[in-house]
């Protein structure tokens, strides 16, 4: 039960990481629009928070992170430091790389509009590739999940039609050891199938 919960939490973190990456692309697109409208970079992020709350809601992942950034700016924390924190908390490599590039550009006086525009392009391309991969492997992922349930269906069917068939496997040492090995093999096969169908870009 505990390994299963740990695995599900890992999958949930990966899902949140992908979602916040997509939302981050829209957020910095809003920042770029605000910069072109004449806002400072800090105010551009403040306005982006309002846009993202309208687009995704106040309880969205990006809404929560941008809210932390705005609170940090109110407390005079440098924006680059807040972006580093955002990247570490989200565990998204795109956000972490953007934070690093942003910090260097701000120190050296780089063109923020150009940098953010390029970042949007890179993230957009990555998202498109992920979508294409998702379409290509969606059928295989469904097949893998069906196959993962087949052993349980077989056991349920045999137990339903031939009661007592598995009794010898649960009341002696050899049977317990054999079923334990089978369970370990099944879990390993399940984890392997999940790893195969979850391709990261």
Task: Provide an overview of this structure.
Pfam families: T2SSF. Keywords: Cell membrane, Membrane, Transmembrane, Transmembrane helix. This protein has about 200 residues and is mainly α. It has helices spanning about 1-35, 40-55, 60-75, 80-90, 95-110, 110-160, 175-195. Helices cover about 85% and strands about 0% of the residues.
Question: How does the overall form come out from the CA principal axes?
Answer: elongated
Please give the radius of gyration in angstroms: 24 Å
Summarize the biggest pleated sheet. Answer: none
- Bin the strand percentage: under 5%
Indicate the low-confidence ranges by residue numbers: none
Listing every helix as H and every strand as E from the N terminus to the C terminus, the arrangement reads: HHHHHHH
Main location: membrane
Subcellular location: Cell membrane
Protein name: Flp pilus assembly protein TadB
Transmembrane segments: 146-166, 172-192
